[in-house]
Amino acid sequence: MLLTNATIATLDGDAPYGLIRGGAISVESGTIQWAGPMADAPGAGGETVDLEGRLVTPGLIDCHTHIVHGGNRANEFEMRLEGASYEEVARAGGGIVSTVRATRAASEEELLITALPRVDALIAEGVTAIEVKSGYGLDIDTELAMLRAARAIEKARPVRIRTSFLGAHAVPPEYSGRPDAYIDEICLPALEAAHAAGLADAVDGFCEGIAFSPKQIGRVFAKAKELGIPVKLHAEQLSNLGGTQLAARYGALSADHVEYADDADAAALARSGSVAVLLPGAFYALRETKMPPVDAFRRRNVPMAVATDCNPGTSPMTSLLLAMNMACTFFRLTPEEALASVTVNAAKALGLADTGRIAPGLRADLAVWNVEHPAELAYRIGFNPLHQRIFGDAA
Ligand code: DI6
Ligand code: FE
Fold first, then answer.
1. Ligand 1 atom closest to residue 69's alpha carbon, by position in its atom list
2. Distance (Å, whole) CA 158 – CA 15
3. 278 alpha carbon – ligand 2 mean position (Å)
4. What is the pLDDT of residue 44?
């Protein structure tokens, strides 16, 4: 297949956006064979598609989601807006524990079925790869069920799924006050079981006062290292506990949230080659005011990714285009940085070398947009200009 008459944001090379005007892309068996100016295009052996000047980007990548989970927390949203305090919501059985309860009560099939409409919303925006975490089971069986449901998405929809084991997300009620026992008796055995079943592409944790200490996360990371699984971490979301430095010491794929990270943390990520994943949906929903250190990331060449953090508590969001817009408006990313944050840098955050750019040899995961310039993607608020999505050899 030869796509012609396209404006191509390759995210490759030195030009802004890697932009090629009047370009063509040749695709064979789900792989990009060639991309460049139309005048140099190889002869079309097969079908030619005239894109009439439309923009082509790499398929978008949502590199941080909790998209598989039971229930929702609209009732808490309502309670808080009617004046209930965080404690009152928690005493009424709310918070992360309520999602754990709903997730444990759901069958594996239900976990898949309820995730699919959220997945479909992302696919409709040209998303071709999604990271999905466990972390609402917090017992061995339910953590594994969440990961199997995540894997099953790949069979139900034309999208690539990367799983992350997030057993160290919260301490479940039955281990209240005993986080170390939870890690020994549930989290580490669940991680071993997930690895044995081929269900964990990465290991994640929540390093925070309300979750786990750097020392406790370190024990989970040591097991990940022993099993040969890459790590990433929810770090410096609500305070600075040193999670980013810990993640960097383990050569993490990414450190995520990072609002409270500082310049030394940015330096550590630069040394380890980790990606800083910004999550403006949670920033917005929590009405956070502390900005991630974007200038320090820039100065030190730390790649920045942006994701939805789709979760029922702090980011019930299923639009990556909106996340791009929020990253520009809240965090002052440029539209070019925003597009890189959901393509080339998001691929890096997932350890995927075969997607995220438009270049020969990479997968033909592409999004075709009814826009003239790539800045329009981050510019609009709540508008989806997708024309067509191409997913490998499944158009
Ligand atoms: N950080 C968050 O903001 C969410 N998880 C995390 O590690 C909160 C998840 C929830 O409230 O359900
Ligand atoms: Fe998260």
1. 12
2. 31
3. 10
4. 65
Q: Which residues pair with 58 in a beta bridge?
A: 366
Largest CA distance in the chain: 68
**Ligand 1 site, CB within 6 A:** 96, 99, 169, 206, 234, 237, 282, 311-314
The pTM of this model reads: 0.98
Rounded CA-CA distance 248/207 in Å is: 13
Tokens 């944790």, residue?
205
Residue nearest (by alpha carbon) to ligand 1 atom 2 = 314
Q: What pLDDT score does 55 carry?
A: 98
Query: Each residue of 293-309: pLDDT tens digit?
Result: 999 999 999 999 999 99
Strand partners, 36: 24
Contact by Cβ (8 Å): 296, 266: yes
Query: Which amino acid appears at position 197 of this protein?
Result: A
Instruction: Give the side-chain half-sphere CA count within 13 A for 269.
Output: 33
Q: Which residues of the chain have pLDDT under 70?
A: 44, 395
What is the signed CA dihedral for 171, 306, 254, 266, rounded to 10 degrees?
Answer: -110
Position 46: which residue type? G
Q: How far, in Å, from the CA of 68 to the mean position of ligand 2?
A: 12
C-alpha separations of 189 from 12, 86, 109, 139, 140 in Å: 42, 32, 24, 10, 7
- The pLDDT tens digits of the residues spanning 374-395 come to 999 999 999 999 999 999 987 5
Distance 311 CA to ligand 2 centre (A): 7
The pLDDT score that the predictor gives to residue 389 is 98
Specify the pLDDT at position 393: 85
Atom 9 of ligand 1, residue of closest alpha carbon: 313
